[in-house]
């Protein structure tokens, strides 16, 4: 490894370089810190989660009482809990689908808009999108909470001014449906920029000649979109959909803080928040772990096509 | 006729573009605007839409930072800065070394390791809060910067390794080999040739680590429970959590304080976020 100026500069042959590369222990030494960190703080917690999901683990066990093995009891409890677990899971999935669809549609429309307008307007749109994108989700949630505030929110204020009825005191968060409407606003507002920018970047790669030729052949704008632009960015759309599904299913901060501001926790829990409530708030650590294991399995199943695609691309 | 129609369409799209801008920027504007307004101008019918000089005030910032609140501001800043900085340093150093191993060496198990890094990223942290809490508690690290830092480091590291690996891959190995043929040692060739080319990639990856650690909420919620060990996101949460009427001016001031570093750093590196997904994803 050492070659100083005193040594005659002997050029190592390609073979030598390659041989050095084969040193078997060096790369593993370089990977060791990563392996230790991930092993101890990701691998071990996963094992611990699975173990706890098979134990009776309540507040008493936290105090030092030995945890008893209960087999699949925790799983049986949550999987038969229609009002609790299944409702939350269904709610999370419906919310996820709604969020992904709205985000993708708006994101695509904004991307097309950016293709269509001139440079100055595109810059304007980009600035707006960047601001929304850069906002931390927690700060974003508090701002939207303020906009829809019961007493003094600007929405109630404007509605009062426009309709003439008194909207002050109207709570948007108490009713689960309007709670989820506002949640949708927050999430879509924060998620559209990434989708729009990515789709826009993809759309700019569509060769102009192809679009022009289609136009000369009499294809309408919608036909050009459906038959040329979409096929070109299909793989980008797939990745965006999978990533959005993952992010929207994991939703925690926005739901949790919106509940803080004034929602009914019982009626608005999504899966992540439910795990927190079940475990950290109510002390049913065993049950919460079982839900966590199910959650991990679901997420990995959703991520599977994305992981495979990324690896395939990586090999090229 | 066609010309008129085109101009009409242009105007239409222009109007839509302005609306898109307004909708995306309004919440950010409203946050900043409210944070500079006195209480009597953000409530009721007397609403001000802009902090003109005659009503402009810094009171909200004063009460957010030094007022009688549930969690004090100075320790929250210290905790956030400490955890974020440590996470950034650890993930960059550890991740960079790992990325080098994965790109500059051929060895058995390399592929498996890459797959693992990718899969680990897909495990939702929200599912793991219970076991994470038990483990950190077991090590007596609840409410400590070390405890939260190691959790963040493990959470951010896979992303760091993956991204840095992409950057290192972007620097041709031949450059290094050429330097070695010219008499550089392997280490020398790396430091003099490859490393300078990687600097922008390291900065970008570091900024992502910063943003993630700075904004993180769930794990902090579980691990930092004492008021004086809270990070800034938890500190902000105590404002809206209050059972009495929320002081929205102070909340918005607090939100601005948290958002500023994240927004600034984000704007520095945003160009790199979309690039990766698009390159190679568009197929002819």
Notes on the structure:
The complex is a heterodimer of chains A (316) and B (284). Chain A is an all-alpha fold. Chain A folds into 2 domains: 1-44, no CATH class; 75-315, MetI-like fold, CATH 1.10.3720. Helix content of chain A is 76%, strand content 1%. Chain A is built from 16 helices and 2 strands. Chain A has helices at 14-21, 25-53, 59-62, 73-79, 82-116, 119-134, 137-147, 154-163, 176-203, 208-216, 221-232, 234-249, 253-262, 265-268, 271-281, 285-315; strands at 55-56, 68-69. A two-stranded antiparallel sheet of chain A has the order 1-2. Chain A is globular, with a radius of gyration of 26 Å. Residues 1-9 of chain A have low confidence and may be disordered. Chain B is globular. Chain B folds into 2 domains: 2-57; 72-275, Orthogonal Bundle (MetI-like fold). With 284 residues, chain B is mainly α. In chain B, helix 8 runs antiparallel to helix 9. Chain B has helices at 2-35, 39-42, 59-66, 73-104, 110-120, 129-138, 145-170, 173-181, 186-215, 218-223, 232-241, 248-269, 271-278. The longest helix of chain B is centred in the N-terminal third of the chain and has 34 residues, at 2-35. Chains A and B meet through helix 1, helix 2, helix 5, helix 6 and helix 7 of A and helix 1, helix 4, helix 5, helix 6 and helix 7 of B.
Topology:
The complex is a heterodimer of chains A (316) and B (284).
Chain A: H1 14-21, H2 25-53, E1 55-56, H3 59-62, E2 68-69, H4 73-79, H5 82-116, H6 119-134, H7 137-147, H8 154-163, H9 176-203, H10 208-216, H11 221-232, H12 234-249, H13 253-262, H14 265-268, H15 271-281, H16 285-315
Antiparallel strand pairs in A: 1-2
Helix pairs in contact in A: 2-16, 4-16, 5-9, 5-12, 6-9, 7-9, 7-13, 9-12, 10-11, 12-16, 15-16
Chain B: H1 2-35, H2 39-42, H3 59-66, H4 73-104, H5 110-120, H6 129-138, H7 145-170, H8 173-181, H9 186-215, H10 218-223, H11 232-241, H12 248-269, H13 271-278
Helix pairs in contact in B: 1-12, 3-12, 4-7, 4-9, 5-7, 7-9, 8-9, 9-12, 11-12
């Amino acid at each position: 490894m050492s070659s100083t100026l005193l040594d005659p500069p002997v050029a190592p042959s390609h073979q030598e370089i390659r041989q050095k590369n084969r040193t078997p222990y060096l790369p593993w030494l370089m990977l060791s810190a990563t392996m230790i960190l991930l092993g101890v703080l990701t691998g071990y917690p996963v094992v611990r989660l699975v173990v706890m999901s098979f134990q009776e683990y309540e507040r008493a066990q936290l105090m030092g009482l030995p945890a008893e093995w209960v087999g699949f009891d925790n799983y049986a409890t949550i999987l038969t809990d229609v009002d609790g677990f299944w409702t939350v899971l269904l709610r999370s999935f419906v919310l996820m689908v709604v969020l992904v669809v709205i985000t993708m549609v708006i994101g695509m429309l904004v991307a097309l808009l950016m293709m269509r307008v001139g440079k100055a307007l595109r810059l304007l749109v980009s600035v707006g999108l960047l601001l929304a994108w850069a906002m931390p989700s927690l700060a974003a949630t508090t701002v939207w909470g303020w906009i829809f505030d019961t007493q003094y929110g600007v929405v109630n204020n404007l509605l009062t001014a426009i309709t003439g009825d008194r909207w002050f005191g109207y709570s948007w968060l108490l009713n689960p449906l309007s709670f989820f409407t506002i949640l949708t606003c927050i999430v879509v507002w924060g998620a559209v920029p990434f989708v729009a920018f990515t789709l826009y970047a993809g759309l700019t790669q569509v060769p102009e000649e192809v679009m022009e030729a289609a136009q000369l052949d009499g294809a309408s704008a919608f036909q050009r979109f459906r038959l040329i632009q979409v096929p070109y960015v299909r793989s980008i759309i797939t990745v965006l959909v999978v990533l959005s599904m993952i992010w929207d299913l994991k939703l925690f901060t926005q739901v949790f803080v919106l509940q803080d501001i004034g929602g009914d926790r019982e009626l608005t829990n999504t899966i992540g928040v439910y795990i927190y409530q079940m475990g950290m708030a109510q002390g049913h650590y065993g049950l919460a772990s079982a839900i966590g294991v199910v959650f991990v399995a679901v997420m990995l199943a959703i991520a599977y096509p994305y992981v495979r695609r990324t690896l395939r691309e990586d090999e090229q | 006729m066609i010309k008129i129609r085109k101009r009409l369409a242009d105007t239409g799209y222009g109007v839509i573009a302005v609306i898109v801008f307004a909708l995306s920027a309004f919440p950010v504007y409203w946050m900043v605007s409210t944070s500079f307004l006195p209480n009597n101008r953000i409530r009721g019918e007397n609403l001000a839409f802009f902090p003109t000089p005659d009503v402009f005030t810094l009171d909200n910032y004063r009460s957010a930072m030094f007022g009688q609140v549930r969690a004090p501001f100075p320790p929250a800043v210290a905790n956030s800065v400490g955890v974020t900085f440590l996470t950034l340093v650890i993930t960059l150093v550890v991740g960079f070394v790992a990325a080098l191993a994965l790109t500059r060496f051929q060895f058995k198990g390399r592929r498996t390791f890459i797959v693992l890094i990718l899969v680990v990223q897909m495990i939702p942290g929200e599912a793991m809060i219970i076991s994470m809490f038990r483990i950190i508690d077991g090590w007596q690290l609840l409410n400590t910067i070390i405890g939260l830092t190691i959790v963040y480091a493990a959470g951010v590291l896979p992303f760091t390794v993956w991204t840095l690996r992409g950057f290192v891959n972007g620097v041709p190995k031949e450059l290094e080999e050429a330097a070695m043929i010219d008499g550089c040692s392997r280490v020398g060739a790396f430091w003099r040739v490859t490393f300078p080319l990687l600097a922008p990639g390291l900065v970008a990856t570091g900024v992502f680590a910063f943003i993630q650690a700075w904004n993180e909420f769930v794990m902090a919620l579980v691990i930092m429970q004492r008021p004086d060990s809270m990070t800034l996101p938890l500190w902000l949460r105590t404002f809206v959590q209050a059972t009495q009427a929320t002081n929205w001016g102070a909340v918005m001031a607090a939100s601005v304080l948290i958002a500023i570093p994240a927004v600034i750093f984000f704007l520095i590196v945003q160009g790199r976020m979309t690039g990766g997904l698009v390159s190679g994803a568009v197929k002819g």
